[in-house]
Amino acid sequence: MKRTHFRLSPSQKQRLSQAQERCRAAAGGFQASAFVNVGDTIPVDYDNGFLRGHGTQLVEGQLLATVCGVVERVNKLISVRPLRARYNPETGDVVVGRITEVAPKRWKVDVNSRQDAQLLLSAVNLPGGIQRRRTATDELNMRDLFTENDVISAEVQTLHQDGSLHLHTRSLKYGKLENGQLVKVSPYLIKRLKQHFHQLKQYGVQLILGCNGYVWISAIPPSSSEIVAIQPATNQRAAESESRETGAGTPEAQNVEITRDLRERICRIANAVRVLGACGFMIHPDSIVDTYEASLTSGIEPKQMISGEFHVRTVEREADQRSKKGSFKGSARHLYKAVAARGDDQHHQVYVQVSISRSGSTRELCINGPVTSSSADRHSAGGWPHPT
Amino acid sequence: MDFLSPEGLRLDGRRALELRQLQAEVGVVEKADGSATFEMGNTKVIAVVYGPREVQNRNQQQHDQALVRCEYSMASFSTGDRRRRGKGDRRATELSLVIRQTMEAAILTNLLPRSQIDIFVQVLQADGGTRACCINAATLALADAGIPMRDIIVSCAAGYLNSTPILDLNYLEDSGGGPDLTVALFPKLNKVSLLQMDSKIPIDVFEKVMSLASEGARTVAQFIKETLMENTTQLALAKGPPKF
Predict the structure, then answer these.
(1) A67, B62, B163, B165: which could form a disulfide with A55 (CB 3.0–4.6 Å)?
(2) Cβ-Cβ contacts under 8 Å, B153 against chain A
(3) CB atoms < 10 A from the CB of A380, how many?
């Protein structure tokens, strides 16, 4: 299997394969039957019936996979999600794209989808925040807003039956992107989250993780440093009206001076994204910052991040983190065994609070036995079910 | 010329019913949507897939299905005598068409309307059986690109020399003048998509050669499935489990 496009020395190759093996071991959670190839039969419960989802086909009563990937079951719906595939748009996704064509009343935008997306003239905000009908003059001046090869951020407005999609930029956070770097990764590495605009304040760098696998890295735009403080919507609206004159994409934004130091940080972040993409690890702000910091501690130039050695180290670091996380899981399993042993042949649903250090968020891990205690019991017992 | 020694060994030391060594690598081209190399002995082919993407030539756009294009070429260093092959190579044009039709039969084109899929296949080392090798490489690349297919499509060649059916001919055997039959089939659906042969042979011999080629293709299918499964597993496990 080849995915790394670096020249590696034999010792590096060995380290890489060892680290990948550790990653695999720690990842766990997957059953071998979760993966299917094209043309494989997907085991289904024929008695209860099932719904045929994406990536499957029915041939002579058998459910076959049409793509290679992971089987997902939601109630009766069975679908196969391919890993490396083009961007599969969903309404509301934040995307980064490049204008490929200026057509009558619309722009065509490359968003790494099966077709170019359409951005209608009526779906953009006119400069100055004026709300009015789009006239023939506006149509003639479309190139003043976006021309070919401009990079923009936008949101998916609607999807159509034939696979085409419409975008809109009707918010001040969307629009033309300038003075930064565009990095392309596989779309499956970017998870849909609440927030796709991130400001790494400590570096003065703005990060837009497009759901389509296009990542935009630039300096924090001066005007928006106070607006997109990711805070409550009411504040944001007030701030938006204030900064209407100096949104991104206006002529003022073009003349921002970016210091050498800042440019270097942008490059470092961009290379961190590239490395994570090459390793096939999930791309989110925490992992990017992690990689960034690792490159600083090893004291290497930004350009050296795109090398075999740093690639191997990134995989090794991830393996270490995963095995740590795995030990969390291990301890939870241990706890469950202890609980189960105490309750004489009565199993309970055990909820364990596990905090994952890297993302800093707390999630619930649920280990199932035959359930006897309801969730109401759990709450009355202060969040912890007591074994009988 | 004797293609089989009295011990039943062929020129390269194989037996009549043996395939050459198979090797495959998925994801060899970083910027492509899907890519793979496939080796059958000394024959080596690289296939690269771009798409499904916006149709480049607007009037070729089909509103109900995807447009599949294929370009076959041979590297100038792929054969014994080094030579440059131009655009007007008739063999290349014919092979492009064959590969395109075979892959189009496999791809569920109706799921990808108004888009285009480009398949580029290049022979890096030619030692007989390039047709089969190209189809196998293209399948791997398409599967890597996440393009929905009816089933994987696999291919293998077989011939008939010294009154013996022979599997997976190499260049020397291929130029021996006997029949050379290439078959491409869907292993799961049990359907044949491509069957090519340029010579005349009796029907009973044909059946023997045909069943041998199909048997070879099924062996190749097993290998391709293993390769794809390893690729999928590696990608999914690197990404980490979907839920905690």
Answers:
(1) A67
(2) none
(3) 11
